[in-house]
Design a protein that fits this description.
The chain has nine helices and eleven strands. The protein is 34% helix and 19% strand. Strand 1, helix 1 and strand 2 form a beta-alpha-beta unit. Helix 3 crosses helix 5 and helix 7 crosses helix 8. The relative contact order is 0.13. The strands form four sheets. A five-stranded parallel β-sheet has the order 2-1-6-5-7, sandwiched between helices. A two-stranded antiparallel sheet has the order 3-4. The chain is α/β, with parallel strands linked by helices. Bound molecules: adenine. The site of adenine has 12 residues, from strand 5 and helix 5.
Length: 245
């Protein structure tokens, strides 16, 4: 059974977009995941198929109508029992623990809005999880949806070549990844750290751990604070629950 994706958008041609290439693209062709887009315009009202209107109370921009959005959600989730996510800068910040949760389920339904947003009532009436991909404003939820999908799809069984690279990277244990080096051993007068050429696996592991911790402390004091407080926990989850050891 495929990991099933439904996307509600005014711009269905933006999907699969970059996810039609490379590993995700091959997985889509192989049926590891499947994609169905739902054009919000198809549920628009009147001769112009209007999907939005001016905000009550005044203000700039337009707001997506609850009746239109609700009809799209009804269509998208009719034969699909998956979590429903609305991409919005007002949402809780997406983290790797969310990605693992979605990837381990049957799929996901994504509502992409224009950034002025969707009428609040439909977000109350439906079991919608509101998520942001970062503290900046995109022109619409579509690129945020592609980010979320990319992060999930690479975790699906059989998508990544080796199981190892999916576990050792940044965030899998609450730390940033250590720096990487390849050939040549010296380039433009810069040598690879000698320990990496030593062949001593324990020393290499210890060096990498230190590099990860230093990078996290300097670049991401927020991550470092939770790691230092709960070094045996991963993104708020007990080490035993994720299976990412
Ligand atoms: N839509 C516009 N900006 C967004 C963001 N930062 N995250 C998710 N959806 C968005």
């Amino acid at each position: 059974m495929s990991w099933q994706v439904a996307v509600m958008t005014l711009f269905p041609d933006m999907f699969p977009g970059p996810l039609g290439q490379s590993l995700a693209g091959r997985a889509l062709q192989e049926g590891v995941w499947s994609l169905r887009t739902h054009d919000l315009r198809a549920h628009g009202l009147g001769r112009h198929r209007a999907v939005d209107d001016t905000p009550f109370g005044g203000g700039a921009g337009m707001v997506m109508r609850p009746d239109v959005v609700d009809a799209a959600i009804a269509e998208a989730t009719a034969e699909l029992d998956v979590p429903l996510v609305y991409l919005t800068p007002r949402g809780r910040r997406l983290v790797q623990a969310d990605v693992r949760r979605f990837a381990s389920g049957p799929g996901i339904a994504l509502l992409c809005g224009r950034y002025e947003g969707v009428d609040e009532r439909v977000l109350q009436a439906r079991p919608v999880e509101q998520l942001s991909v970062g503290d900046y404003v995109l022109s619409g939820g579509e690129t945020a949806a592609l980010v979320l999908l990319d992060a999930c799809i690479r975790l699906l069984p059989g998508v990544m070549g080796s199981g190892q690279s999916a576990v050792e990277e940044s965030f899998s244990d609450g730390l940033l990844e250590y720096p990487l080096y390849t050939k040549p051993a010296e380039w433009q007068g810069r040598a690879v750290p000698p320990v990496l050429l030593s062949g001593h696996h324990a020393s290499i592991a210890a060096w990498r751990r230190l590099q990860s911790e230093d990078a996290t402390r300097v670049r991401r004091p927020d991550l470092w604070a939770s790691y230092a407080a709960f070094p045996s926990h991963r993104n708020g989850l007990p080490a035993s629950s994720g299976g990412h050891n």
